């Protein structure tokens, strides 16, 4: 009987240790989910739309942008349809976990993000030269991403031919070899949109930091 009692005590101890270990595992997985945007109030599960929005925002605000992750989080909070408020920490965690993704999964998400953006805006965002070989069908013409050289030529032409210049866009198109008047106008509109989005997002960050003070 004494031996049986001892065995029961040992079994009880093993069961307790097992339960504690399981509880620790659950807690660890909860923490991991929180850090990669899996649970918690500001970091609920990421929908496909939010993932696409995150990729778009990361491309829109490249490294070197002032308060980059706060700006990206604000941009997502403004444009997300899910209504989930993201913090800079959520966004960094998710961006890091996306970097670890299988290349095919990443390409698939990227492609969906591009298709969605093109459908909504009729233009294609510059993706930090990440997809130079990609071609996207525009309404009438093949759309190839702008090279840095073409971008410089366009910017120079915009300065050379101000708004009141007669036949302005024809002259600008002549200054950028291989690009039509329509291409140049489209790219200009896209740049204006990008600048507006950056300004709006950065103003949000400034207002938020002022409100904290």
From TrEMBL:
<feature type="region of interest" description="Disordered">
    <location>
        <begin position="1"/>
        <end position="46"/>
    </location>
</feature>
<dbReference type="InterPro" id="IPR009057">
    <property type="entry name" value="Homeodomain-like_sf"/>
</dbReference>
<keyword id="KW-0143">Chaperone</keyword>
<dbReference type="GO" id="GO:0005829">
    <property type="term" value="C:cytosol"/>
</dbReference>
<feature type="domain" description="Myb-like">
    <location>
        <begin position="145"/>
        <end position="192"/>
    </location>
</feature>
<dbReference type="GO" id="GO:0043022">
    <property type="term" value="F:ribosome binding"/>
</dbReference>
<dbReference type="GO" id="GO:0030544">
    <property type="term" value="F:Hsp70 protein binding"/>
</dbReference>
<feature type="compositionally biased region" description="Basic and acidic residues">
    <location>
        <begin position="1"/>
        <end position="25"/>
    </location>
</feature>
<protein>
    <submittedName>
        <fullName>DnaJ homolog subfamily C member 2</fullName>
    </submittedName>
</protein>
<dbReference type="InterPro" id="IPR017884">
    <property type="entry name" value="SANT_dom"/>
</dbReference>
<keyword id="KW-0677">Repeat</keyword>
<dbReference type="GO" id="GO:0006450">
    <property type="term" value="P:regulation of translational fidelity"/>
</dbReference>
<dbReference type="InterPro" id="IPR001005">
    <property type="entry name" value="SANT/Myb"/>
</dbReference>
<dbReference type="InterPro" id="IPR017930">
    <property type="entry name" value="Myb_dom"/>
</dbReference>
<dbReference type="Pfam" id="PF23082">
    <property type="entry name" value="Myb_DNA-binding_2"/>
</dbReference>
<dbReference type="GO" id="GO:0051083">
    <property type="term" value="P:'de novo' cotranslational protein folding"/>
</dbReference>
<dbReference type="InterPro" id="IPR044634">
    <property type="entry name" value="Zuotin/DnaJC2"/>
</dbReference>
<feature type="domain" description="SANT">
    <location>
        <begin position="141"/>
        <end position="196"/>
    </location>
</feature>
<feature type="domain" description="HTH myb-type">
    <location>
        <begin position="145"/>
        <end position="196"/>
    </location>
</feature>
<keyword id="KW-0539">Nucleus</keyword>
